[in-house]
Amino acid sequence: MSDKSPDIARRKSDHIDIVLGQDVGFAKLTTEFERIRFIHNALPELSLDEIDLSAKLFGRAIKAPVLISSMTGGPHHAEGINRHLAEAAEELGLAFAIGSQRIALEEQGSAGMTRELRKLAPSVPLIGNLGAAQIRSEEGVDLARRAIDMIEADGLFIHLNPLQEAIQPGGDRDWRGVLKGIERLCRAGLPIAVKEVGFGLSAQVVNRLVGAGVCTIDVAGAGGTNWARVEGYRGKADEALAAAFTEWGIPTAKAIHDARLMAPKATLIASGGIRDGVEAAKAIRLGADIVGQAAATLGAAVNSTDEVIGHFTRLIETLKVTCFVTGSSGLAALRQAKLEAQT
């Protein structure tokens, strides 16, 4: 085990406790979904029960365009959380992305991140997760392969969190070679997706990722969990430094719109403060293929599989009703639904 592993495990467990127990949102900056609204259609001429929400991710069919997004956690939390999420994903037919595998790789498959997850969720897209700093070197390809093999994943998220790393004591501060590392993974034919952690991807960064060969991108915009504030609450970071970034980032709605313009052929995942099925529908209307949710699910994930199922059942039903009252028979039609600016 790496000398850093116990510290990383404590930090990730702290993250869970803080997200559950503290206000770690943005003070004023929002997702900007409130700036737009659908025009109500009182004559939908549809059957609600026949609305088709099916989609695909990494070649696997899913029953709704929903990703249970990556949630961090040290060994104390991760096993139960991942079990509940995997079981719920399989029951509902949704995609599931795990939190960072860094500790699990260093400890030879600990923290509940093993092939047992694939047994719990055999039919849905399962996505692994590594930090960008871990794949900078030539060994990054081997590490990525190990991460995929560890859980029999369909894809692997490389998460970009430079602001969080800059604020946390002992964080990864050297990001030279990250883009080249991502390009190596893509050239090796690995099923790579890239995501932010809640401050958004700009159009320029999306363009660089597409140029490196990335085909699946999660914008993870601002307006949900602010990881600068999370680090500030840990009491080990410079609180004034963390506080300076409480309004930093690209709002989720803008990040989706800009990413789709920049990468019209990419599979685009929208996450970052999406609260319910109406906002999920807005994200799809703006250009997303898949919608991800993490922190809003965390309390349920800690408690039980049934609570996670209940949470996502409500989200999916709300998404379906939104399709119904916009006259949209499915996701393709929803992408053409009429919007107007909110005043």
TrEMBL record:
Pfam families: FMN_dh
InterPro entries: Aldolase_TIM (IPR013785), FMN-dep_DH (IPR000262), IPdP_isomerase (IPR011179)
GO cellular component: cytoplasm
Group of enzyme by EC: isomerase
GO terms, molecular function: FMN binding; isopentenyl-diphosphate delta-isomerase activity; magnesium ion binding; NADPH binding; oxidoreductase activity
Repeat is among the record's keywords: no
Residues involved in Mg(2+) binding: E165
Gene3D superfamilies with a match to the protein in the record: Aldolase class I (3.20.20.70)
Record protein name field: Isopentenyl-diphosphate delta-isomerase
Gene designation per UniProt: fni
